[in-house]
Amino acid sequence: MNEHLMLTIALPLLGAFLLPIIMRSSLAMGVWIGPAILGYGCWILGNLWLHGNGQPFSIAIGGFAPPIGINLYVDAMALLFAFATQLLGLIFWPFRLDQDTPKRQALMLLLVASSTGLALSGDLFNLYVFYELVAVSTFGLIAASSSGAAYVATIRYLILSGIGSVLTLFGIALIYAQTGTLNLAHLAQLAPDQLNNDLGLAAFLAILIGIGVKAELFPVNTWVPEVYATAASRLSAFLAGLVSKLAMLVILRLLLLIFHQPEATQVILILGILGVISGEFAAWRAKDMRRMLAFSSIGQLGVIFIAVALPDERGVLAVLALSLHHMLIKSGLFMLADHWGGSLDRLRGLAATSPLAGGLFVLFALSLVGMPPLPGFWAKFTLITELAGQTDPLYMIGLLVFLLATVIEASYLFRVAAKMYQTKPTENVRINAPDSGGLSLTTASLFGAGLIAVTVMVSPLGEALQAVAAQAQDVDLYIQTVLQQPLGERQ
Amino acid sequence: MIPDLTLELILYSTALGLVSIGLAGLVLSRHSFRRVLALVIAEAGANLMLVLAGYRWDAVAPIVTTLGKQPQMVDPVPQAMVLTAIVIGVGIQALAVSILIRIHQRYHTLDRNEMAELMDAEIAATAGTARDVSQESPLGERPIPPITGSAVQARGGRS
Amino acid sequence: MRNLTGLLFAGGLGFMLLSIAINLDFGTPTMLIGGAIQSKALQETGATNIVTSVVLGYRGIDTLGELSILFAAAASAGLILGRRHTTAGTQTAGGFVLRHGGSMLFPLLMTIGFYIIFHGHLSPGGGFQGGVILAAAFFLPLLARPGAQLHHGTLSLIEGFAGASFVLIGLIALQQGKAFLQPMLIQDTLGVLLSAGTLPLLYLAVGLKVGAELASLLSHLAQTESDV
Amino acid sequence: MGELEIWIALLLGLMMLSAAILVLLVKNHIAAVAAASVVSLGLALLFVLMRAPDVAMTEAAVGAGLSSLILALAVKRLGLWRIEGKITRSSLLATNTRREKDA
User: Fold this and answer.
1) What is the ipTM of this complex?
2) Residue among A319, A320, A321 nearest A306 (CA)
3) Do C51 and D93 touch (CB under 8 A)?
4) Which of C27, C73, C128 sits opposite B92 (nearest CB)?
């Protein structure tokens, strides 16, 4: 059964290669292939989650034992994100039928396959390859909306991403030159001796900037508002909700396993704080819904970066809680933005015409700000207590900035909400809903329902997440699982 | 302290120089085609660095020529990775070039600032937040340029 | 201001890395993984070219990912450029030498391309290099006769099936109870064409796929209408 | 490792670095593409020197051959063989920054 996990990556790739051919002969059959593959992937992963023994395991690709070959490392955290990838891929599947459908769906399958790989892979260079595949299929999907602005956004994103991949490659080369291995477990074993120095720090910074491009890290996030405003909303939701979290997950893994220097966490903390400040202020000034969401996404990813910088298990818990919460909320909000479209001024009095959408917006906004019964509160509460427990003054700054950001967030979100509930309907009230209007509202309600379900079950889910965080934090377990050797051998 | 001029040092400096020149070009150039060229240079530097990571001065190429006792070989793993990286690089480059062709058709410019202004104008126009529409929210840092002919034309060309 | 920041960034990066490199001993790498692979590769994969055994065996999934990247790039370029298809009729046809040279080179390039692909596990070369040569063979007639059309249907058929067969070879191993992409050996003498089991098949898939992707990329670029 | 190899590497390295600088400075885009392919070709030769024949073959075929072809096609499609005002401006910018860097 465990070996079948490989199918969640292999089958979408196979489907992507064959989709253009199949669609040429039979469109009716072709349109079901993608959803069927992703549904099967969900089934495999869900089965593993339900019937697995909760212990992490490792799969050697090609049958070569891990430090020599490439392996997939499957713990609860990886499984959780892989499942979210396949599920969100299914939810945000590009159904639209036109002459570009085969290529668009093939690119979407590639995006899902590579995102799954990003969650599971246990090899540094393999992560880089999957990361590039995520990038290239994203470029294609953004440019597929074929407006001039989308092309410009894509090329600017491509160039920034190119800088990132050169830096990542350079960092990988430095690590390989120093240690002679690329397997994460093997690196984790060697890191205390060989990478705990300036060279390791330089390699980490290069990789951080490189992968940070996708994780919306502060100096390399200029692509975010442009891309989210020009790409199709469903794609924006997938990118903001999921892909950014996967890049974050990779950074978290590297930090937990390999790079233990205090400088590394400090850099992440500072960049996270700067990201929060810049993102939230820009969101406050934004005048259309999509850009507001894009900027606030930068801010929230900054908050998650602050959580990544926290040292112990509770920090990992905060990262997981904030990430999953943001995934749910941002996907829903982008779907609402797709439903409404356009400038914030057009939203005036909208709640009267479409009460469900208005209610959903308020629900998401409340959870995002952190209203007590909603899950957003628990995520933020974990972070605050953890930040307050630190002695380093930098964490105090982080705490202050975080609280300030929450105030700003509340101010701009409720400005929008107030606008929606204004009674005076102006003459240009017009729901700018494209053909997918009903579908996106349905999807948004799905996320709203998910949010309420989480609210009801918040305490068992919190305990489950705690177990996931504890497992992810256990470096010895990782090394032992991958390299199959007794615990005592590590110094 | 001037280290001896060894082969490794020369190669490392070349790799570093190519990456630095490429990154400088990526950050500084205004013409987008030039930035794509700079990306090519930077990638070349990174590839050289990767091969260098597995280079041994006392070894032969990693191909088995005789049975029995093997001579010392250079590390094959970085070479395999560089093969991958080179092909990835050319794919991205071709994609970049095809996007540039389309941008040139729409906007008739490849200057990065002009491109960005036209893009902002188009985004604002699509969202309906051009300057004269809303006076309520504070203006953004960037002044929104008037919608030029090509941007309007580009919008008209949308499907 | 922006220029200065960029310059400082690039310069600072260069300086930082140069100062760090003094500690690195290039020329005598540790070769933890490399050494292990070197001593086992011949027995485990049957390829005398160890780079090939790494590319297709030990790091086979990387190669699959790379093929997917190339596929994604070609599909995206097709999405972007493939909308209005006009042959570039404004170009002048090539002269006598170019036309006839082109048609004479075609079989030669095909032979070289396939030779390089099939001997990738024995000597330097393989799917990528051979694939580029195949792409060149297909692209050459396009340069010589600008009116000529590459048959996009055939190309996409080749790229689809070549990519799929790479995955399928991997899945067959999975089906037989081995790991995904595990090479299947035919024990034979060293240095013979078929000594490396499924590796040449994988390299053939890689070569065809790379060739088809690159040819379609090039023809997309060459055939879009120029607006100047 | 012979003395000769060091001199060849030094020569190639200097050639590649100056070609790389030329890519950013030269006004004519065709010349810039040519300089970029010089960098790739030099890289392929360096790979031969570093006993990486596979990589050298790939770099020569992909980097020096195919990628130059793609870029040259792009120059043609983009109509960049004419020197325009914008291009001159960008080269001037690059020249200035290069001077700053050297100083």
Assistant:
1) 0.87
2) A319
3) no
4) C73
Cβ-proximal residues to C128 (8 Å cutoff; 6+ apart), any chain: B83, B86, B87, C206, C207, C210, D58, D61, D62
Q: Name the residue facing D46 among B11, B90, B111 (closest C-beta).
A: B11
CB A21 within 8 A of CB A93: no
For the entire predicted model, the pTM comes to 0.89
- Shortest alpha-carbon distance between residue C96 and chain B (Å): 30
Q: Which sign, positive or negative, has the C-alpha torsion C139, C143, C145, C149?
A: positive
Q: Which of B11, B26, B37, B81 has the highest number of chain A CBs within 10 A, making it the mutation to test binding with A?
A: B81
Q: What does the alpha-carbon distance between residue A211 and residue A226 come to, in Å, rounded to a whole number?
A: 19
D and A touch with 3+ CB pairs <8 Å, answer no
**B9 interface with D at CB cutoff 8 Å:** no
- Is the CB of C185 inside 8 Å of chain B's CB atoms? no
Neighbouring chains of C at 3+ CB pairs under 8 Å are A, B, D
Contacts of D among chains (3+ CB pairs under 8 A): B, C
Distance of alpha carbon B88 from alpha carbon B40, whole angstroms: 11
* Domain membership of residue D71 as a residue range: 3-102
- CA dist A411 → A285, A399, A406, A414, A418 (Å): 11, 19, 9, 5, 10
Q: Which residues of A168-192 are buried (b: 16+ CB within 10 A; e: fewer)?
A: bbbbbbbbbbbbbbbbbbbbbbbbe
Minimal C-alpha gap between B121 and chain D (Å):
21
CA angle D48, D54, D58 (to 5 degrees): 95
Query: What are the mean pLDDT values of chain A's consecutive 10-residue runs (491 residues total)?
Result: 80 88 81 87 86 79 80 87 90 80 88 91 91 92 84 90 91 86 86 80 87 85 85 86 90 87 85 88 83 87 88 83 88 82 70 77 84 81 83 84 88 83 58 57 84 83 84 82 58 34
Rounded Cα gap, residues B54 and B144, in angstroms: 51
* Separation CA C131–CA C137 (nearest Å): 10
Best of A287, A295, A424 to disrupt the B interface by mutation (most B CBs within 10 Å)? A287
> CB-based contact (8 Å) between D22 and chain B?
no
Question: The tokens 């060739």 sit on which residue?
Answer: C211
Contact flag D20-B41 (C-beta cutoff 8 Å): yes
Enter the CATH code of domain B1-61+71-109.
1.10.287.3510
Q: Break chain A into its structural domains and give their ranges.
A: 1-121, 122-478
Residue C228 in any domain: the answer is no
What are phi and psi for residue C84, nearest 5 degrees? -100, 115
Distance of residue C221 Cα from the nearest chain D Cα, in angstroms:
7
Tokens 């597929």 sit at which residue? A144
| Residues of the domain holding C48 | 2-223
Name the closest residue on chain D to residue B18, using Cα atoms: D17
